[in-house]
Amino acid sequence: MPTIEFENVTKVYGEDTVALDDVSFTISEGEFVILLGPSGAGKSTMLRVLNGLTDPTEGTVRIGGAEISGNRSEVGMVFQEHYLIESKSAFGNALTGALSRNGLLRSLLGLHSDHDKTTALESLQTVGLLDEAGQRAESMSGGQKQRVGIARALVQEPEILLADEPVASLDPKAAREVMRYLKKAATEQDLTTVTSLHQVNIAREFGDRFLGIRDGEVIFDGDADDLTMEEMDRIYYGGEAGDESLKNDPTGTDSVPSGAPGANAAADGGDGT
Ligand SMILES: Nc1ncnc2c1ncn2[C@@H]1O[C@H](COP(=O)(O)OP(=O)(O)OP(=O)(O)O)[C@@H](O)[C@H]1O
């Protein structure tokens, strides 16, 4: 479980879309970090840079002290759209995580080692789906599919786990369940984990540390206690919502500015289950 370092990382798309603007931070081994911020803040770009899916325009990203370049097999990724093969079983989908170890041809031919198969079953067990190993993805709920997505990332035997809005399309109860399994997997396997999340009140329950991103800059770095209403206001509204956000807070108790993604979840079904 290596450290992650961003040193003066800037990412510019095209001529002038600055998605990350001179970003520097270090994530310690085994930390569970949640990226918060409004749409377009740069969260996905941060994850893509970390995964080697896109190169920074300037600056350096290091994993375990080594500068990264290209796609990284030690980085497992969970996507919002789980990208499962619907006609395959949970087990078959989990096994595709071994692709980076085995190469495309062996995977296409279904030539999996006993180690791969055992790892796939263990990963399904980690996400509570061992009994559903033979069930086709197409007959699974959205939450179950996302848990298969986590299992697939674990089969890759990563040291770092990334997730881009892994529960964005789920109801609050299913979202919490998926987050519980993501955290369980990270804890059991000592993975350094970075996930973006829109549902702020769910994020607060699971994150060790939060990075607040706005306009490509990290403007907040702290734990759940530091994540006050004022800080949320600053992250999501640039501090301009002021007392209005407090006045309109639908929960009355939850430190989530009204209008922030997921702010209503606590009021309409975020029952803490
Ligand atoms: N491939 C791309 N080409 C051009 N511009 C892009 C590309 N990907 C992202 N951007 C732009 O970079 C900025 C940051 O986008 P990014 O997707 O990283 O934000 P985000 O915080 O993940 O947003 P969301 O929560 O909506 O996914 C935005 O202005 C976006 O339009």
UniProtKB/TrEMBL annotation:
GO molecular function: ATP binding
Swiss-Prot/TrEMBL keywords: ATP-binding, Cell membrane, Membrane, Nucleotide-binding, Translocase, Transport
Nucleotide-binding in keyword set: yes
PROSITE patterns on file: ABC_TRANSPORTER_1 (PS00211), ABC_TRANSPORTER_2 (PS50893)
Keyword Nucleotide-binding: yes
Domain ABC transporter: 4-240
Alphabetized Gene3D superfamilies for the sequence: P-loop containing nucleotide triphosphate hydrolases
Region (Disordered): 238-273
Low complexity bias: start-end ranges: 259-273
Coiled coil ranges: none
Descriptive protein name: Phosphonate ABC transporter ATP-binding protein
Organism whose genome encodes this protein: Halobellus rubicundus
